[in-house]
Amino acid sequence: MVEFIDVTKKYPNGTLALSKVNIKINKGDFVFIVGQSGSGKTTFIKLLLKEEDPTEGSIFVNGYEISSMKRKDIPYLRRSLGVVFQDFRLLPDKSVYDNVAFAMRITEALPKEIRRQVPMALGLVGLSRKADALPGQLSGGEQQRIALARAIVNNPSLLIADEPTGNLDPDTSWDIMKLLIEINHRGTTVIIATHEKSIVDSLKKRVIAIDKGIIVRDQQKGTYENEDKNCKIYT
Amino acid sequence: MKIRTVKFILKDGVKNIYRNKLMSLASISIIVASLTTFGIFYLMIINFNHNVMGLREQPEMQVFCNPELDDVGVKLVENALVQNSNIKQVTIVTKEQAFEKVKHLLGDNVDVLEGMDNSFLPVSFIIKLNEPETSQELLVHLQDINGVDKVTYPQKTVEFISRFTRGIQVISTLLTAILLIVSVFIITNTIKLTVFARRKEISIMKYIGATNWFIRWPFIIEGVIIGIIGSIVGFLISGYGYNELEVRFTKELLLSGTSIITMLKLNEVGLLIFLLYLVLGCTVGAFGSMISIRKYLKV
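ok -> structure tokens follow
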């Protein structure tokens, strides 16, 4: 599903964001990427979306080797992924319905399909009744749920969330997490970069910890901080 | 691209114009100003060309007698002309004929002649030459004949206007080119402002997998529609202005009794001007949009 082989990313200003990273994430996995700000989490996500290219190594996403992918093929890679950001990134002038439908329109989906899929996605996140509202009229939690609906409306096999609960209060954060788990149960691989210690600790999912660009821990049923001495620890 | 996508993109482009009313208005005004200025030069050129062509088809001299000259004097002038070996044909234009011609040219404004008779008009002779090359000597010779007031020879005017037109053409081509470049520049910057306001939107579209063309098209449509509106408004302004000018100019010329220079009627040049405006307006609009958006597509 996702594989990083000896991936190093060095920015032009000399910052070493990731160093010799090897990760394998299988289909159906639910993975937390944890680490402090500046640890390399965001670079990891950017590489997955091909917003940045690795300096060395290869990255496989959904069977494509994306580090050598041509620019014009990037949109097709991104369509096969669902993405959720900390700041929601909704189109402010389009209604909730149109925001979700937009992800399908760019794939030139049939109107019939759009009319079927969009209400289904909105139903899953529990916002069917807000379809005509504009994003600005909704709360942060609701906006993030719309972003989730948009991310899953094309039935991606991989969902990437970069600090999805970073702007939300604890209760709302839990709602979003529950939705992500629900999406994972339907068979979608989910990768979440996060700071939320309480959520990571109580869910006991796979945790990959990054520190200063290096994978320091990869733990099944892990926690935010290292408590289990038997886990796989990199040095 | 599928029909439904084209529909969606068209709708988005039209919506964008409405959403960015102020910026759209600014872009339209700039296109109108540039096109109108271009139109003024262009109309000048085609009118000059039109006159030069008209004059070339008419290689004749017209010899005007003094208006006070009596019939005997006129006869003497006519004899002198007929006897000249360089002259092929002589046609007399009597005072009555001249008066009729003026009346005819005045059309609806014939009342200005009320209370006047034909005595203020001179008798004239239209002559055709055997050898146009000797026209210069003949002109001097004819002016010396007793009772001749003036001799008009369009060839001189033709040469003058030809030189003048060439000058105007060079200057106006340069000015038009500069103007169009400046318009593209200003429009690009105007559209850049709207693109800048929507750069976040563009990056969102890129993140969820929209192709560059999918993002670009609504902006291009927006530019083209702005171009079309600009060219229609520009055409209405310059068409109206030109028509007013043409009507007045023609009237003035008729009153002064000259008909050597004429202006083309609006219906003769209107379609050409409109099409030119449309092509230029749309090109500038679309081009401006494409340049403005380029930078924000690199996500």
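Residues 212-256 of chain B form the longest helix (45 residues).
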